[in-house]
Amino acid sequence: MSLFNLPPIWMAPMAGEASSAALVAAVSAGGGFGQLGAAYLAPARIVEIAADIRARTDQPFGINLFCPQPWLRDDTALDAYLARLAAWHTELGLPAPTRPERYEEDFDAQLEAAIAARPAVISFVMGDPGVARVAALKAQGFKVIGTATQVGEGRVLQASGVDAVVAQGYEAGGHRGGFLGRAEGALIGTMALVPQLVDALDIPVLAAGGIADARGVAAAQALGASGVTVGTAFLLVDECPLSPAYRAALLAATDADSTLTQAFSGRFARGVANRVTRELEGVALPAFPQPNAASRPLRQAAAKAGQADFISLWAGQALPLNRAPGTAAQLVAALSKGWRA
Ligand SMILES: Cc1cc2nc3c(=O)[nH]c(=O)nc-3n(C[C@H](O)[C@H](O)[C@H](O)COP(=O)(O)O)c2cc1C
């Protein structure tokens, strides 16, 4: 199935250090489809970065948001989490951690900013944007994409009217994007998930998770995907403004260092294991986004101090496959070799 005249090689939206205009623009200008992970950005920043992307390229790009999800504030659990962070704060010379003043950006304001930025695609993860919102976005000319980690989620998203679904397999770096059942429940690998979603849905499916070179792209196409969404491999391209400690940790990690952890955010995410993931393994945590906001000062200070043990080193299982991708355009070209027109 065609992807609305967009190229088949997409850069996954990556909130955090990789939310960069230069990177998104380089992917789109390089023949792929760049996406901005805007989940942690204030609405005004979304508009600014989108303008910056547009100043760099006239090619289309996408913007991605986390769907709002209900969560119960639990200050007792949060205080226990802060007590665990305290020793690491001391190691980095930071003041003791405190309860965050804010936990997340206002979703409706972020969405308004995304609309004002006029990307070609608005994509969502960790939820179902719902029939009314999808219809309103489509009426304004946007292509709307949802993220599924199991077939049931794909069906819900299709019923809401999305134009395409990203099938996010277990291999994928970053947060699990699912929303039905327990986050650690649906851990279906890309190889198994993509063809099941392709069979179940009438809309295009993009494959995500563990795709890092032309072989993965060819495999995804063979499974019926209409395109691929690649995250981790783009973290190492020249234009990605990754902190040196994060980059060095990615370059040193092996396949066996990949772990699924709640330790940084309260929600399962895949990254390279470090002291935080090891020492908080099995520890009960407050729900996302409380730990995510509470650990931010530690993560940011660690990135500045070059201390990878306290950074959330999000990356997928295929990380070691492509450690020297070159520029974004070179990576797009290398991945494109696996796609048959
Ligand atoms: C650093 C990082 C940040 C991510 N942030 C987001 C995000 O903001 N929104 C989203 O939909 N997916 C996010 N993801 C997941 C990607 O969309 C995608 O599913 C994943 O990168 C694909 O697997 P791969 O990393 O093996 O290529 C992130 C992934 C990484 C590695």
Automatic annotation (TrEMBL):
The record's annotation in Pfam families points to: NMO
* GO MF terms held by the record: nitronate monooxygenase activity
- Give me the reactions it catalyses: 3 propionate 3-nitronate + 3 O2 + H2O = 3 3-oxopropanoate + 2 nitrate + nitrite + H2O2 + 3 H(+)
Show which residues constitute the signal peptide. Answer: none
> Which InterPro entries has this protein been placed in?
Aldolase_TIM, NMO
The organism's place on the tree of life at top rank: Bacteria
Q: Its family?
A: Belongs to the nitronate monooxygenase family. NMO class I subfamily.
> What name does this protein carry?
Propionate 3-nitronate monooxygenase
Species lineage: Bacteria, Pseudomonadati, Pseudomonadota, Betaproteobacteria, Burkholderiales
